[in-house]
Write a structure and sequence with these properties.
The chain is an all-alpha fold. Helices cover 75% and strands 1% of the residues. It has a two-stranded antiparallel ribbon with strand order 1-2.
Length: 548
């Protein structure tokens, strides 16, 4: 049976993918960590440092900042940070595309500076509440822009390392807020704690000239951008123009691959409800949302927001306990990075949830004086450790592994919105839980952890070592083997899949034959020509050494 040839758009996508594969082989073996790269990364990471610092800064001074405040007022001051963040996340994508990555980072820094000044000079608790919303807005921008910026600046061999810097900067920020509380969490010096946001923002603005624009963004706007080539040369420490052009070809070919994808052209944006309605994606969507909800409703930020209050009456110096938790958090984050690629995501999630659940049991029993107070301190630190090895990083990591490119932005947006909402909820209600439930305040968190463990054990798919396409294929196969009312639907679906598979296999064989013929004739395009010229008459093949 004669099959229809692939369209020009589909051929363009295949040629760009071939280009990417070949360019990967041409990647420079030695990647220099240059001074411009180091400074750009450090300046950008200050944004995530401020996110972490402002998560922890309200913990210690609860009793000294306008001490006549009510529980509701302080709860709002803490939780409005989380309420402002989703608004920042919503505008971050638009800012990144219209103003560039560097421009969006500078807007984020100015917003941090505004919130920090208002917070430092606040005459009453209500202005503190307003400033927390503004700082939360800036934090929402930062959590979106900084990972994008670092990922686009980093060379491929350093992308994983620099990607982990965002989490490190955040947990270090929390620890620094705990350490600064020792000298400054007093009735006369508490404003100095809030000044750190102002000083860090000013320092970031002072270092703004070192903050280079993302070359990937510049090339997406103008593939012939000389500025992008100059920045690549500085960041990579390259000496020759042909090395720079290799990097540029890598970026441009990747963009052409996305732009040539017919599915992407048909539907640029996928709505959340479309994803929920697709039975092959539904479990993945639910899994992503459940993990985000469990991450926050497990109570982890109740520890970071209110651990000083929690430790009152448990140990003689609550601030010391809070600082110990912050230090353990940093160490556990480093340990998690070492484990992340050695074990499956699902395995680490189950270990994390199980360990946190056991820790919660010991926390509650210690508060009931079944065990000593020191056991409560150990249990809280164990709770934080188990959080960081699974439930902390994996809900964010797993989204990119579950969904392919056309779904991942929508999935990440929905996940982020739910995460910040649950974060806001915990920050708002935990003071009341602590006030009225006393020793049982962590019991609801234990229930959530148990439910999350059961869900993960039964339904959560393993994503490590699989592509989104392979994962969806597994779910399609699983759905196809479902039995409804004692009637198996495997046979019919398998037959349909077999027919489609045969047609696809024949079409691919024809494409392969055509490409082999072009290779033999020396006219095959390996992706070095621009995509829009593929349909033109083929030129004689260039010698590889001449091209380079």
């Amino acid at each position: 049976t004669t099959q229809k040839h692939l369209s020009s758009e589909e051929l363009a996508a295949r040629h760009s993918q071939a280009s990417l594969m070949l360019l990967d082989e041409l990647e420079l073996d030695k990647v220099m960590v240059t001074t411009p790269l180091i400074f750009a990364v450090l300046v950008a990471a200050m944004g995530q440092f401020l996110v972490g610092y402002n998560i922890g800064v309200m913990n210690a001074p609860a009793s000294v900042v306008f001490p006549d405040h009510t529980t509701t007022e302080w709860s709002l001051a803490v939780s409005l940070f989380c309420f402002g963040a989703p608004f920042g996340s919503n505008v971050a994508g638009t800012l990144a595309e219209t103003r560039g990555r560097r421009g969006a980072l500078l807007i984020c820094t100015w917003t941090f500076l505004l919130g920090g000044i208002i917070q430092t000079t606040a005459p009453n608790i209500y202005i503190i509440i307003l400033s927390r919303f503004i700082i939360g807005f800036a934090s929402g921008i930062s959590t979106v822009i900084v990972p994008i910026y670092l990922g686009e600046l980093a060379p491929p061999t350093l992308r994983g390392t620099l990607g982990t810097l965002t989490q490190f900067a955040l947990v270090v920020g929390i620890l620094i807020s705990d350490l600064f509380a020792f000298p400054f969490a007093t009735e006369t010096k508490w404003r100095a704690l809030f000044t750190v946001t102002v000083v860090t923002s000013v320092l970031q603005l002072f270092c703004a000239p070192m903050l280079l624009e993302s070359p990937r963004w510049l090339l997406s706007k103008k593939p012939g951008s000389r500025k992008a080539r100059y920045i690549i040369k500085k960041l990579r420490g390259l000496r020759y123009d042909h090395e720079v052009e290799t990097e540029v070809d890598h970026f441009v070919s990747a963009m052409h691959t996305r732009n040539a994808d017919p599915d992407e052209k048909e539907k640029k944006t996928i709505s959340f409800m479309d994803m929920v309605a697709d039975k092959n994606l539904r479990l993945l969507v639910v899994s992503a949302l459940v993990l985000q909800a469990v991450q926050q409703l497990s109570g982890i930020n109740a520890v970071f927001y209110y651990s000083t209050t929690f430790f009152e009456g448990v140990i003689s110096n609550p601030l010391l306990g809070t600082t110990l938790v912050g230090a353990v958090n940093v160490i556990a984050t480093y340990g998690a990075l070492l484990m992340m690629d050695s074990y499956g995501r699902r395995t680490l999630i189950l270990l994390s949830l199980g360990g946190m659940l056991v820790s919660v049991v010991f926390i509650v029993l210690s508060l009931l004086h079944v065990f000593s107070n020191i056991t409560a301190l150990v249990a809280v630190n164990a709770y934080v450790i188990f959080f960081e090895i699974g439930l902390g990083p994996i809900p964010w990591l797993i989204v990119a592994e579950m969904f392919d490119a056309k779904y991942v932005a929508t999935a990440m947006s929905a996940s982020s919105q739910l995460n910040w909402f649950c974060n806001f909820l915990v920050g708002l209600i935990f003071p009341y839980m602590d006030k009225y439930m006393h020793a049982y305040s962590f019991v609801p968190f234990g229930v959530v952890l148990f439910a999350g463990f059961v869900f993960s054990l039964i339904w959560l798919p393993e994503t490590q070592g699989t592509t989104p396409e392979e994962l969806q294929a597994q779910l399609i196969k699983k759905n196809a083997s479902t039995v409804y009312h004692n009637m198996s639907v495997v046979g019919d679906v398998s037959q349909q899949q077999g027919t489609l598979g045969d047609e696809w296999r024949i079409a691919m064989d024809q494409v392969r034959q055509e490409e082999e013929e072009e290779m033999n004739l020396g006219t095959f395009n390996y992706g070095f020509k621009p995509i829009d010229k593929i349909e033109e008459a083929p030129a004689p093949a260039q010698n590889f050494m001449q091209w380079k």
